[in-house]
Amino acid sequence: MAQRPVIVDCDPGQDDAVALLMALASPESLKVLGITCVAGNVPLELTQRNARRICELAGQPDLPVFAGCPRPMLLPLTTAEAVHGKTGLDGSGLPEPTMALQDRHAVDFIIDTCLSAGDGEITICTLGPMTNLAVAFVKAPQIAGKIKEIVFMGGAALGPGNRTPAAEFNIATDPHAAQVVMEAGPPLVMFGLDVTHRVITTPARLDAITRIGSPVSEAVTGMLTFYDRNDPDRYGERGGPLHDPCVIAWLLQPDLFRGKQVHLSVETGSPLTMGQTVADWWGVTGKGPNATIMDRADSDGFYSLVVDRLSRL
Ligand code: RIB
Ligand code: CA
């Protein structure tokens, strides 16, 4: 498989951390050009710090990490320390990073990288609020032609939200950024709650990660133990969903997932449903598809891939 050049935009976050580790463990498939950080789960100064801690855990301190937007485009920043802890990476046991943060702004890195690439060459993965990518499209709309696809964790097409009754956290945090991205042109591949709630880190799956017996698996076990969103009534079994790694798993093994091409848009007017992702699942609007929305996953195959990639580091 040829290396796919990717930029990973994230708000680490324990699940972001697992996604980053999987990406960094897959050089035969992915060329991670850089990691761009955004405010989301925790403020920007913590997400960029955590991204650097994860790069060092993966043994890749030379990977460029960039800080981006410290707040959503219009809404005030709302964070999720209750889920991820005060540091955003509680449970990891990781030390302070020693690798430097890049001076360039994340938005400028996204723009510069896309403008120097060939048409349709770059894959953008977003694992948090889409603020950085949206601002890049506003500043340099011509980057759209350089982007192969935007593969993102966010939204909920067929069910309720997790931040509000209508909206998933990443989209609810910056719905205006999501609208800019959805209207920018590149094809979208959406990993929303419809599919991420089908990949649950059960005790047996967490044990399989722990049995790797490495510093990486020790840190991941600590993170996922802290991040335990255990709610059998909600998820149908013990454990919680592993959202962000679905994005990387699809890039590595697309047959683990199944979805449908539909028109996708986002609510940015109603206070009640702000950030709701609206999928025209039955084509009633007549609008052409702009997104593939994933709704099925091979969860055993997914966790086998997670263990395989973490075992490489
Ligand atoms: O709703 C789940 C998403 O919100 C994940 O990306 C998680 O890291 C948080 O950012
Ligand atoms: Ca995230």
Quick overview of this protein structure:
With 313 residues, the protein is α/β, with parallel strands linked by helices.
Q: CATH homologous superfamily name?
A: Ribonucleoside hydrolase-like
- Could you tell me the number of beta strands? 12
What's the CATH C level? Alpha Beta
Rg over alpha carbons: 18 Å
Unreliable residue runs: none
Bound molecules: alpha-D-ribofuranose, calcium ion
First-to-last CA distance: 20 Å
Give the strand order of the largest sheet, numbering strands 1, 2, ... along the chain.
3-2-1-4-5-6-12-9
Order of helices and strands: EHEHEHHEHEHHEHEHHHEHEEEEH
At the fold tier of CATH, the topology name is Inosine-uridine Nucleoside N-ribohydrolase, Chain A
Number of helices: 13
Judging by the overall fold, what is the CATH architecture? Alpha-Beta Complex
SS-based class: alpha/beta
**Beta fraction of the residues?**
15-25%
Helix content percent band: 25-40%
SSE layout:
Layout: E1 4-10, H1 14-24, E2 30-37, H2 44-57, E3 65-67, H3 81-84, H4 106-115, E4 122-126, H5 131-139, E5 147-153, H6 169-173, H7 175-182, E6 188-191, H8 193-196, E7 200-201, H9 203-210, H10 215-226, H11 232-235, E8 240-241, H12 245-252, E9 257-262, E10 264-266, E11 277-279, E12 291-297, H13 299-310
Parallel strand pairs: 1-2, 1-4, 2-3, 4-5, 5-6, 6-12
Antiparallel strand pairs: 7-8, 9-12, 10-11
Helix pairs in contact: 1-2, 1-12, 4-5, 5-7, 9-10
Alpha-D-ribofuranose binds next to helix 1 and helix 6.
Structure description:
- It is a single chain.
- The protein has 313 residues and is an alpha/beta fold.
- It has a single domain, classed as Ribonucleoside hydrolase-like (Inosine-uridine Nucleoside N-ribohydrolase, Chain A, Alpha-Beta Complex), CATH 3.90.245.10.
- The chain has 13 helices and twelve strands.
- An eight-stranded mixed beta sheet has the order 3-2-1-4-5-6-12-9, sandwiched between helices.
- Helix 1 (14-24) links the parallel strand 1 and strand 2.
- Helix 1 (14-24) packs parallel to helix 2 (44-57) and helix 4 packs across helix 5.
- It is globular and about 50 Å long.
- The model has no long low-confidence stretch (mean pLDDT 97).
- Residues 10-11, 13, 15-16, 41, 127-128, 244 line the site of calcium ion.
